[in-house]
Please model this.
Amino acid sequence: MAFSEIQKRKAAGLPAFNMPFYMGACFILYITWIGFAALGAAVGPVFGNVAAWGFGMAFPAVFLVLLRGMWKSFSASRLWFVNLFVASAVYLTVDGAWYVPAGTLSGLLSAYFWNGRK
Model:
């Protein structure tokens, strides 16, 4: 969405950044987020325990589908494996949610060392 807007503006000889476009997109996304969060808070208790319906697998399934769409090759995905290994190791050895920043930092550092020096 944003990339095509930038290309159109460059082709028309306009500056690439378009503040009204981004403000409009942010406003719509924010209102949608807040609206559906409120709807979920209002309607959610009616459903009770959704884990009984098997929705516990919904998030991992969506995540795996997104990963599959981004898969290019094994060598391009080695950052994912570094992140997975570090986050898993920290999750198993350290109390709390420190596996999230540890996995993030390991992914950033491995991306820098493998791809950043070109």
User: Anything to note?
Assistant: The chain has two domains: 1-48, 53-118. DSSP finds five helices and no strands in the chain. The mean pLDDT is 87.
